[in-house]
Protein backbone atom coordinates (compact mmCIF):
# COMPACT_ATOMS: atom_id res chain seq x y z
CA UNK A 1 0.00 0.00 0.00
CA UNK A 2 1.28 3.47 -0.83
CA UNK A 3 2.65 5.59 1.98
CA UNK A 4 1.10 8.89 2.92
CA UNK A 5 2.78 11.80 4.70
CA UNK A 6 1.25 11.62 8.22
CA UNK A 7 0.32 15.34 8.19
CA UNK A 8 -2.50 14.41 5.78
CA UNK A 9 -3.99 11.62 7.86
CA UNK A 10 -7.50 12.31 9.18
CA UNK A 11 -8.72 10.92 12.50
CA UNK A 12 -10.77 7.72 11.90
CA UNK A 13 -14.12 9.44 12.60
CA UNK A 14 -13.41 12.02 9.86
CA UNK A 15 -12.28 9.66 7.07
CA UNK A 16 -14.25 9.25 3.88
CA UNK A 17 -15.89 5.99 4.93
CA UNK A 18 -17.24 7.27 8.28
CA UNK A 19 -20.92 8.11 8.72
CA UNK A 20 -21.88 7.55 5.09
CA UNK A 21 -25.07 5.69 4.21
CA UNK A 22 -24.80 4.27 0.69
CA UNK A 23 -27.57 4.59 -1.90
CA UNK A 24 -29.50 7.30 -0.11
CA UNK A 25 -32.26 8.52 -2.42
CA UNK A 26 -32.43 12.00 -0.86
CA UNK A 27 -31.16 14.69 -3.19
CA UNK A 28 -30.01 18.24 -2.55
CA UNK A 29 -32.45 20.54 -4.43
CA UNK A 30 -31.59 21.84 -7.92
CA UNK A 31 -33.41 25.13 -8.54
CA UNK A 32 -33.98 26.68 -11.96
CA UNK A 33 -33.38 30.40 -11.42
CA UNK A 34 -34.92 31.45 -14.75
CA UNK A 35 -38.28 30.81 -13.05
CA UNK A 36 -37.95 34.11 -11.15
CA UNK A 37 -38.82 35.89 -14.40
CA UNK A 38 -42.28 34.32 -14.26
CA UNK A 39 -44.50 36.37 -11.89
CA UNK A 40 -46.62 33.27 -11.23
CA UNK A 41 -43.60 31.21 -10.18
CA UNK A 42 -41.25 33.62 -8.43
CA UNK A 43 -42.79 33.09 -5.00
CA UNK A 44 -42.36 29.33 -5.35
CA UNK A 45 -38.66 29.78 -6.12
CA UNK A 46 -38.22 32.00 -3.06
CA UNK A 47 -39.93 29.39 -0.87
CA UNK A 48 -37.82 26.58 -2.32
CA UNK A 49 -34.64 28.55 -1.60
CA UNK A 50 -35.81 29.22 1.97
CA UNK A 51 -36.60 25.55 2.52
CA UNK A 52 -33.22 24.45 1.14
CA UNK A 53 -31.40 26.96 3.38
CA UNK A 54 -33.24 25.54 6.38
CA UNK A 55 -32.96 21.81 5.79
CA UNK A 56 -29.63 21.46 3.98
CA UNK A 57 -27.87 24.82 3.88
CA UNK A 58 -27.02 23.68 0.33
CA UNK A 59 -28.71 23.74 -3.06
CA UNK A 60 -27.71 23.94 -6.72
CA UNK A 61 -28.85 26.49 -9.30
CA UNK A 62 -29.22 26.19 -13.06
CA UNK A 63 -30.09 28.91 -15.61
CA UNK A 64 -28.36 31.32 -13.25
CA UNK A 65 -27.21 33.97 -15.73
CA UNK A 66 -23.45 33.38 -15.50
CA UNK A 67 -22.27 33.02 -19.11
CA UNK A 68 -20.99 29.55 -19.94
CA UNK A 69 -18.01 31.04 -21.79
CA UNK A 70 -16.83 32.99 -18.73
CA UNK A 71 -16.86 29.82 -16.67
CA UNK A 72 -15.17 27.57 -19.21
CA UNK A 73 -12.55 30.23 -19.91
CA UNK A 74 -11.49 30.48 -16.28
CA UNK A 75 -11.54 26.69 -15.88
CA UNK A 76 -9.22 26.27 -18.84
CA UNK A 77 -6.87 29.09 -17.88
CA UNK A 78 -6.35 27.99 -14.29
CA UNK A 79 -5.61 24.46 -15.43
CA UNK A 80 -2.81 25.80 -17.63
CA UNK A 81 -1.40 27.55 -14.55
CA UNK A 82 -1.60 24.51 -12.26
CA UNK A 83 0.09 22.34 -14.91
CA UNK A 84 3.24 24.52 -14.65
CA UNK A 85 6.28 23.23 -12.73
CA UNK A 86 6.01 23.92 -9.02
CA UNK A 87 8.95 26.44 -9.13
CA UNK A 88 6.88 28.59 -11.47
CA UNK A 89 3.83 28.42 -9.23
CA UNK A 90 5.87 29.30 -6.15
CA UNK A 91 6.76 32.65 -7.76
CA UNK A 92 3.26 33.79 -6.84
CA UNK A 93 3.17 32.08 -3.47
CA UNK A 94 0.82 33.38 -0.82
CA UNK A 95 2.15 34.55 2.55
CA UNK A 96 0.76 35.73 5.86
CA UNK A 97 1.13 39.42 5.01
CA UNK A 98 -0.71 39.23 1.71
CA UNK A 99 -2.79 36.06 1.82
CA UNK A 100 -3.51 35.62 -1.88
CA UNK A 101 -1.87 33.67 -4.69
CA UNK A 102 -0.66 30.09 -4.81
CA UNK A 103 -0.53 27.84 -1.77
CA UNK A 104 -0.04 24.10 -1.40
CA UNK A 105 -0.06 23.54 2.34
CA UNK A 106 -3.47 24.56 3.59
CA UNK A 107 -4.80 23.09 6.82
CA UNK A 108 -8.43 22.61 7.78
CA UNK A 109 -8.80 22.01 11.50
CA UNK A 110 -5.08 21.37 11.76
CA UNK A 111 -4.91 18.49 9.27
CA UNK A 112 -3.33 19.12 5.88
CA UNK A 113 -5.66 19.14 2.87
CA UNK A 114 -4.81 17.12 -0.25
CA UNK A 115 -4.93 20.06 -2.65
CA UNK A 116 -3.27 23.15 -4.09
CA UNK A 117 -5.06 26.49 -4.21
CA UNK A 118 -4.85 29.91 -5.79
CA UNK A 119 -6.72 32.78 -4.13
CA UNK A 120 -7.83 35.94 -5.91
CA UNK A 121 -9.45 38.93 -4.22
CA UNK A 122 -12.62 40.10 -5.81
CA UNK A 123 -11.16 43.58 -6.23
CA UNK A 124 -7.52 44.29 -6.93
CA UNK A 125 -7.26 46.35 -3.77
CA UNK A 126 -9.03 45.09 -0.74
CA UNK A 127 -9.36 46.73 2.68
CA UNK A 128 -8.81 44.29 5.53
CA UNK A 129 -7.86 44.63 9.22
CA UNK A 130 -4.12 45.05 9.63
CA UNK A 131 -3.66 42.65 12.49
CA UNK A 132 -5.43 40.06 14.60
CA UNK A 133 -4.87 42.12 17.76
CA UNK A 134 -8.35 43.28 18.90
CA UNK A 135 -6.84 46.57 20.17
CA UNK A 136 -5.43 47.40 16.78
CA UNK A 137 -8.12 49.15 14.74
CA UNK A 138 -5.84 49.69 11.74
CA UNK A 139 -6.68 48.70 8.20
CA UNK A 140 -4.49 47.92 5.24
CA UNK A 141 -4.97 47.63 1.54
CA UNK A 142 -3.94 44.34 -0.03
CA UNK A 143 -3.43 43.49 -3.68
CA UNK A 144 -3.74 40.42 -5.85
CA UNK A 145 -0.73 38.47 -7.10
CA UNK A 146 -0.90 37.50 -10.75
CA UNK A 147 1.22 34.93 -12.59
CA UNK A 148 2.93 36.04 -15.81
CA UNK A 149 1.72 32.92 -17.55
CA UNK A 150 -0.91 32.14 -18.81
CA UNK A 151 -1.24 35.71 -20.00
CA UNK A 152 -5.03 35.91 -19.71
CA UNK A 153 -5.12 34.49 -16.18
CA UNK A 154 -5.95 37.84 -14.59
CA UNK A 155 -8.61 38.80 -17.12
CA UNK A 156 -10.30 35.41 -16.97
CA UNK A 157 -10.39 35.44 -13.15
CA UNK A 158 -11.63 39.02 -12.93
CA UNK A 159 -14.36 38.43 -15.49
CA UNK A 160 -15.52 35.28 -13.75
CA UNK A 161 -15.48 36.90 -10.28
CA UNK A 162 -17.68 39.77 -11.52
CA UNK A 163 -20.32 37.30 -12.72
CA UNK A 164 -20.10 35.20 -9.57
CA UNK A 165 -20.52 38.31 -7.38
CA UNK A 166 -23.59 39.36 -9.32
CA UNK A 167 -25.16 35.95 -8.83
CA UNK A 168 -24.20 35.95 -5.14
CA UNK A 169 -25.88 39.32 -4.51
CA UNK A 170 -28.98 38.19 -6.42
CA UNK A 171 -29.19 35.13 -4.19
CA UNK A 172 -28.81 37.27 -1.07
CA UNK A 173 -31.84 39.28 -2.25
CA UNK A 174 -33.87 36.12 -2.79
CA UNK A 175 -32.80 34.79 0.61
CA UNK A 176 -33.79 38.10 2.19
CA UNK A 177 -37.24 37.83 0.59
CA UNK A 178 -37.53 34.23 1.81
CA UNK A 179 -37.07 35.55 5.36
CA UNK A 180 -39.91 38.06 4.89
CA UNK A 181 -37.40 40.95 4.75
CA UNK A 182 -37.02 43.61 2.04
CA UNK A 183 -34.79 42.46 -0.78
CA UNK A 184 -32.35 45.33 -0.05
CA UNK A 185 -31.95 44.34 3.61
CA UNK A 186 -28.31 43.29 3.25
CA UNK A 187 -27.17 45.77 0.59
CA UNK A 188 -25.19 47.96 3.00
CA UNK A 189 -23.20 45.00 4.29
CA UNK A 190 -21.27 44.62 1.03
CA UNK A 191 -20.07 48.19 0.39
CA UNK A 192 -16.45 47.21 1.02
CA UNK A 193 -16.89 43.50 0.65
CA UNK A 194 -13.86 41.28 1.27
CA UNK A 195 -15.05 38.58 -1.14
CA UNK A 196 -12.58 36.35 -2.94
CA UNK A 197 -12.38 33.50 -5.43
CA UNK A 198 -10.41 30.37 -4.73
CA UNK A 199 -9.25 27.88 -7.30
CA UNK A 200 -8.87 24.40 -5.81
CA UNK A 201 -6.97 21.62 -7.55
CA UNK A 202 -7.17 18.17 -5.94
CA UNK A 203 -4.50 15.87 -7.41
CA UNK A 204 -5.06 12.12 -7.49
CA UNK A 205 -4.31 10.79 -4.00
CA UNK A 206 -2.66 7.42 -3.23
CA UNK A 207 -4.73 6.99 -0.04
CA UNK A 208 -8.20 8.52 -0.43
CA UNK A 209 -9.27 6.37 2.51
CA UNK A 210 -6.98 8.34 4.87
CA UNK A 211 -6.76 11.88 3.45
CA UNK A 212 -9.38 14.42 2.39
CA UNK A 213 -9.22 17.17 -0.25
CA UNK A 214 -10.74 19.53 2.30
CA UNK A 215 -11.51 18.36 5.81
CA UNK A 216 -14.95 18.86 7.33
CA UNK A 217 -15.67 22.58 7.86
CA UNK A 218 -18.29 25.30 7.60
CA UNK A 219 -17.62 28.33 5.41
CA UNK A 220 -17.23 31.53 7.44
CA UNK A 221 -18.78 33.74 4.73
CA UNK A 222 -22.33 34.85 3.87
CA UNK A 223 -22.72 32.37 1.05
CA UNK A 224 -20.54 30.49 -1.41
CA UNK A 225 -21.04 30.05 -5.15
CA UNK A 226 -19.11 26.97 -6.22
CA UNK A 227 -18.30 25.78 -9.73
CA UNK A 228 -17.30 22.13 -9.52
CA UNK A 229 -16.15 20.03 -12.46
CA UNK A 230 -17.63 16.66 -13.44
CA UNK A 231 -15.44 14.49 -11.18
CA UNK A 232 -17.39 14.79 -7.91
CA UNK A 233 -16.18 14.49 -4.31
CA UNK A 234 -17.98 17.29 -2.46
CA UNK A 235 -20.15 16.02 0.39
CA UNK A 236 -22.53 17.75 2.80
CA UNK A 237 -23.48 16.64 6.28
CA UNK A 238 -27.28 16.47 6.67
CA UNK A 239 -28.60 18.89 9.28
CA UNK A 240 -30.95 16.38 10.91
CA UNK A 241 -28.45 13.59 11.59
CA UNK A 242 -24.97 14.42 10.30
CA UNK A 243 -24.93 11.69 7.62
CA UNK A 244 -22.72 12.63 4.62
CA UNK A 245 -24.37 13.09 1.20
CA UNK A 246 -22.65 13.66 -2.14
CA UNK A 247 -23.37 16.86 -4.08
CA UNK A 248 -23.63 15.36 -7.53
CA UNK A 249 -22.08 17.37 -10.35
CA UNK A 250 -24.78 18.89 -12.60
CA UNK A 251 -23.41 20.34 -15.87
CA UNK A 252 -23.07 24.15 -15.75
CA UNK A 253 -24.80 24.37 -12.35
CA UNK A 254 -23.45 26.21 -9.31
CA UNK A 255 -23.52 24.75 -5.84
CA UNK A 256 -24.71 27.34 -3.33
CA UNK A 257 -24.08 27.02 0.37
CA UNK A 258 -24.93 29.18 3.35
CA UNK A 259 -22.01 30.40 5.46
CA UNK A 260 -21.63 31.35 9.11
CA UNK A 261 -22.65 35.02 8.66
CA UNK A 262 -26.07 34.12 7.26
CA UNK A 263 -26.53 31.48 9.94
CA UNK A 264 -25.84 34.07 12.65
CA UNK A 265 -27.94 36.81 10.96
CA UNK A 266 -30.92 34.41 10.82
CA UNK A 267 -30.33 33.25 14.41
CA UNK A 268 -29.85 29.63 13.21
CA UNK A 269 -32.99 29.53 11.06
CA UNK A 270 -30.76 28.99 8.04
CA UNK A 271 -28.03 26.44 8.30
CA UNK A 272 -24.37 26.65 7.49
CA UNK A 273 -23.65 22.98 6.83
CA UNK A 274 -20.44 21.11 7.40
CA UNK A 275 -18.99 19.92 4.14
CA UNK A 276 -15.82 18.22 2.95
CA UNK A 277 -14.13 16.95 -0.19
CA UNK A 278 -13.31 13.31 -0.76
CA UNK A 279 -10.44 12.61 -3.16
CA UNK A 280 -9.77 9.66 -5.45
CA UNK A 281 -6.71 7.80 -6.67
CA UNK A 282 -7.08 8.29 -10.42
CA UNK A 283 -8.48 11.68 -11.41
CA UNK A 284 -7.62 15.25 -10.55
CA UNK A 285 -10.54 17.51 -9.67
CA UNK A 286 -11.04 21.28 -9.90
CA UNK A 287 -13.46 23.53 -8.08
CA UNK A 288 -13.80 27.31 -7.95
CA UNK A 289 -15.65 28.76 -4.97
CA UNK A 290 -16.56 32.45 -4.80
CA UNK A 291 -16.86 33.38 -1.13
CA UNK A 292 -19.19 36.32 -0.54
CA UNK A 293 -17.79 38.20 2.47
CA UNK A 294 -19.20 41.36 4.07
CA UNK A 295 -17.24 44.58 4.63
CA UNK A 296 -14.61 44.38 7.38
CA UNK A 297 -16.56 46.71 9.73
CA UNK A 298 -19.89 44.83 9.61
CA UNK A 299 -21.07 43.66 13.01
CA UNK A 300 -22.39 40.11 12.49
CA UNK A 301 -25.20 39.39 14.95
CA UNK A 302 -28.76 38.02 14.82
CA UNK A 303 -31.03 40.49 12.99
CA UNK A 304 -33.43 42.41 15.20
CA UNK A 305 -36.33 41.56 12.88
CA UNK A 306 -35.70 37.85 13.40
CA UNK A 307 -35.36 37.70 17.19
CA UNK A 308 -38.08 37.97 19.82
CA UNK A 309 -38.59 37.09 23.50
CA UNK A 310 -39.50 33.56 22.35
CA UNK A 311 -36.51 33.41 20.01
CA UNK A 312 -33.70 35.29 21.79
CA UNK A 313 -30.35 35.90 20.06
CA UNK A 314 -28.22 32.78 20.07
CA UNK A 315 -24.94 34.55 19.31
CA UNK A 316 -22.85 37.38 20.62
CA UNK A 317 -22.11 39.77 17.78
CA UNK A 318 -18.66 39.90 16.23
CA UNK A 319 -16.82 42.32 14.02
CA UNK A 320 -16.47 40.52 10.72
CA UNK A 321 -12.94 41.61 9.76
CA UNK A 322 -11.38 40.69 13.11
CA UNK A 323 -13.11 37.33 13.21
CA UNK A 324 -11.94 36.52 9.75
CA UNK A 325 -8.27 37.34 10.11
CA UNK A 326 -8.16 35.47 13.41
CA UNK A 327 -9.77 32.40 11.95
CA UNK A 328 -7.45 32.30 8.98
CA UNK A 329 -4.24 32.38 10.96
CA UNK A 330 -4.23 28.60 11.20
CA UNK A 331 -4.46 28.15 7.42
CA UNK A 332 -0.71 28.63 7.32
CA UNK A 333 0.48 26.46 10.13
CA UNK A 334 -0.51 23.73 12.46
CA UNK A 335 -1.56 25.45 15.68
CA UNK A 336 -1.88 23.87 19.09
CA UNK A 337 -5.56 24.79 19.29
CA UNK A 338 -8.35 24.64 16.76
CA UNK A 339 -8.96 28.03 15.11
CA UNK A 340 -11.92 30.17 16.17
CA UNK A 341 -15.38 28.96 15.10
CA UNK A 342 -18.75 30.69 15.47
CA UNK A 343 -19.93 28.08 17.96
CA UNK A 344 -17.56 29.74 20.44
CA UNK A 345 -19.71 32.88 20.12
CA UNK A 346 -22.93 31.08 20.97
CA UNK A 347 -24.91 32.42 23.87
CA UNK A 348 -25.96 29.72 26.32
CA UNK A 349 -29.76 29.72 26.32
CA UNK A 350 -31.26 28.26 29.49
O1 LIG B 1 -14.02 21.72 -3.74
C1 LIG B 1 -15.15 21.75 -3.28
O2 LIG B 1 -16.10 21.18 -3.81
C2 LIG B 1 -15.45 22.52 -2.00
C3 LIG B 1 -14.31 23.34 -1.48
C4 LIG B 1 -14.64 24.02 -0.19
O3 LIG B 1 -15.49 23.60 0.56
C5 LIG B 1 -13.91 25.23 0.17
O4 LIG B 1 -12.94 25.59 -0.53
O5 LIG B 1 -14.31 25.88 1.18
FE1 LIG C 1 -16.06 25.13 2.01
UniProtKB/TrEMBL annotation:
Pfam family, one: 2OG-FeII_Oxy
Fe2OG dioxygenase domain: residues covered: 193-294
Keyword Ligase: no
GO function terms (MF aspect): dioxygenase activity; metal ion binding
Keywords attached to this entry: Iron, Metal-binding, Oxidoreductase
Family recorded in the similarity comment: Belongs to the iron/ascorbate-dependent oxidoreductase family.
Protein name: Jasmonate-induced oxygenase 1
Organism, as annotated: Cardamine amara subsp. amara
Amino acid sequence: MADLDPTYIQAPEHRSDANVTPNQPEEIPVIDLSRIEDPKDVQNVISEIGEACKTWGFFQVINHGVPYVARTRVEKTVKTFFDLPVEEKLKVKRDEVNPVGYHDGEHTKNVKDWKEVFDVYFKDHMVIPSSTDPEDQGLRVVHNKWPQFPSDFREACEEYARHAEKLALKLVELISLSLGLPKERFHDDFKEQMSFCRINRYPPCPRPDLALGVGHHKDADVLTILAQDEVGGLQVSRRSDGVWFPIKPVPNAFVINIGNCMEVWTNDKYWSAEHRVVVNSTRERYSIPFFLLPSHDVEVKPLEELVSPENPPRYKGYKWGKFYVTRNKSDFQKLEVENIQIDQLKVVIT
